[in-house]
Specification:
291 residues; Rossmann fold; five-stranded parallel β-sheet; 9 strands; 35% helix; globular; binds N-carbamoyl-L-aspartate
Length: 291
């Protein structure tokens, strides 16, 4: 039984094959690959795009979707998450997609179920489907030529599971991450180049990925207001100039904090393309994992 807990669950050849299917699904839309199958989504943390993206992906493949409303489930009656999942598993779904605030939780469920578990984000740990859709968007933008490309990952890198997954995945395809962040948002290791401001590396990067400041994950208050942070880290026309750089963001974007209104209108921003690709990548992942 194959699961998707981190991007290392898929070999590079498997990812190439996954992207072939992703291209097919970007053209094909609705089909019957998974008709008669049942997918359960279990989101213990807020989500707009990831949950709807998975649900649309499953439905486009012809599968049925059951979304457990965690607020009204037995969790509020004191049942442990392991018992909730064991009960859902007993109803014989074909996949369980889970988002939870606890790092490692989706991985700890794999030996308790008879179907694939797909990690839709666990705390600050990993968000493998987001990293795969980010990589796919980059691969398509550069026509497959990703070797030697550099990506600036800007902002709250330390608490971002999107960054955590991307810095593991992208180097496997020849892309070097450069971290752009204030000291308190940097990694506390030096596996990657880390700088304080985007202007230091703007002339050497091919891609900029802006991140949301994850206030809900901070135990300290770093800024009196996000406007303080934005003064140094908001992606603006001024910092981009007319350079040919791809601009990405996993969403949700804080306008004029992460990225300026002007750059959100700019053709170099491919954020909505990421969202479109997200459905197709998740269709390819569901097709791959559900037997
Ligand atoms: C991210 C998440 O929830 O990890 N969003 C997403 O899934 N597209 C990033 C965020 O919340 O800032």
């Amino acid at each position: 039984m194959k699961h998707l807990i981190t991007t290392s669950d898929f070999g590079s050849d498997e990812i190439e094959a996954l992207f072939e299917d992703t291209r097919m699904f970007n053209d094909l839309q609705s089909n019957t690959y998974l008709s008669g199958k049942l997918v359960v989504t279990l989101f213990f943390e807020n989500s707009t795009r990831t949950r709807s993206s998975f649900e649309i992906a499953a439905k486009r493949l012809g599968a049925e979707v059951v979304s457990l409303d965690v607020g009204t489930s037995s969790r509020s009656k004191g049942e442990t998450i392991f018992d909730t999942v064991a009960n859902l598993n007993a109803m014989k779904p074909d996949a369980i997609i889970i988002r939870h605030s606890e790092c490692g939780l989706p991985g700890s469920l794999t030996d308790k179920v008879d179907c694939p578990i797909i990690n839709a984000g666990d705390g600050t740990n990993a968000h493998p489907t987001q990293a795969l859709l980010d990589l796919f968007t980059i691969v398509e933008h550069f026509d497959g030529d990703t070797q030697g490309k550099k990506i600036a990952i800007v902002g709250d890198v330390k608490t971002s599971r999107v960054a955590a997954s991307n810095v593991k995945l992208l180097p496997r395809f020849g892309i070097e991450p450069i971290i752009v962040a204030p000291e308190h948002f940097k990694f506390n290791h030096n596996d990657f180049k880390q700088v304080n401001s985007l202007s230091e590396v703007i002339d050497e990067v091919d891609v900029v990925m802006s991140l949301r400041t994850q206030l809900e994950r901070h135990s300290e208050v770093y800024y009196a207001s996000l406007q303080e942070y934005a003064k140094d880290y908001c992606i603006t026309q001024e910092v981009f100039g007319d350079r040919d750089i791809l601009l990405l963001h996993p969403g949700p974007v804080n306008r004029n904090v992460d990225i300026s209104d002007e750059m959100l209108e700019d053709k170099r921003n491919k954020i909505l393309e990421q969202v479109t690709n997200g459905v197709a990548v998740r269709m390819a992942i569901l097709k791959k994992l559900i037997k």
